[in-house]
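$ ./design --mode recover --in tokens.txt
reading tokens...
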């Protein structure tokens, strides 16, 4: 995450609204959505569960997917995940 990216306005291939879902559902739904994307495409996930912060950071590290950006605004957590080639 070297350049500043506005998580809420960055152009994405798909957006997943997981607001109102409790952990681990935002991450599980994101994993399902990533399966439908091609390598290099970007998924935006919106969530309201504070536990999702830890989950998405750990998932990106373990899975090899790139967490391009993360932001929190008005109790909504936004994640940009770029699907890896593998």
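writing sequence...
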């Amino acid at each position: 995450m070297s350049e500043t990216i506005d998580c809420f306005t960055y152009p994405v291939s798909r957006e997943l609204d997981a607001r109102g879902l409790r952990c681990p559902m935002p991450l599980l739904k994101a994993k399902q959505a990533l399966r439908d994307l091609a390598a290099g495409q970007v998924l935006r996930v919106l969530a309201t569960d504070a536990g999702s912060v830890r989950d998405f950071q750990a998932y990106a590290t373990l899975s090899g997917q790139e967490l391009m950006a993360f932001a929190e605004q008005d109790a909504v957590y936004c994640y940009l995940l770029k699907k890896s080639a593998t």
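exit 0
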